Amino acid sequence: MGFRENETDTQHILERMENTMNNLEQMSYDSINITDRLVTLLSDAREHAAKMTTGTEEERIKEFDILMEILSRILDTAFIVNNIAHELERETLYQRDSVEAIKQVFDFFYSMTDGIDL
User: Fold this and answer.
1) Three-state DSSP state, 116
2) How many angstroms separate the most distant Cα atoms in the chain?
3) How far apart are CA 23 and CA 3, in angstroms?
4) How much is the pLDDT for 112?
5) What CA–CA distance (Å, rounded) separates 9 from 39?
6) What one-character DSSP code corresponds to residue 2?
7) Are 20 and 95 in contact (CB under 8 A)?
8) What are the CA-CA distances from residue 111 to residues 2, 9, 55, 73 (Å)?
9) Distance (Å, rounded) from C-alpha 12 to C-alpha 99?
10) Cα within 13 Å of Cα(94), Cβ side
């Protein structure tokens, strides 16, 4: 492999690494927002569950329906978090692959300069 091919490969690796870093940053931001949403939903659920212990039968049924809706939203949010976790895992593997590829590029350059006084 010559310098030009190596330069092209290196540019491709660095672009992939930059894209992966951007993806990781966005997913981290999304994760924070989603976990904030989960905390709010769980707090709401606790409040409505507490209200179910008092009030008339009609009020308890209403609170139960609200609680079931909140639990459904929590489940939907949990699926989103799960998907993001899988994406984070994949992006992390891309980063690891990129680091290994960069190490190979450096090894190539070092091997080309062995014995040359710089």
Assistant:
1) coil
2) 89
3) 30
4) 73
5) 44
6) -
7) yes
8) 12, 17, 79, 57
9) 13
10) 19
The pair of structure tokens assigned to 73 is 């939203």
* Amino acid residing at 44: D
What does the pLDDT read at residue 40? 95
Amino acid at 100: E
Model confidence, pTM? 0.68
Distance between first and last Cα of the chain: 22
What is the C-alpha to C-alpha distance for residues 57 and 71, in angstroms, rounded to an integer? Answer: 21
9: which 2 tokens?
């490969």
Residue ranges in the chain whose pLDDT is less than 50: none
Contact between residue 80 and residue 31 where contact means Cβ atoms under 8 Å apart? no
Structure tokens at 21: 């870093």
Identify the pLDDT of residue 3.
55
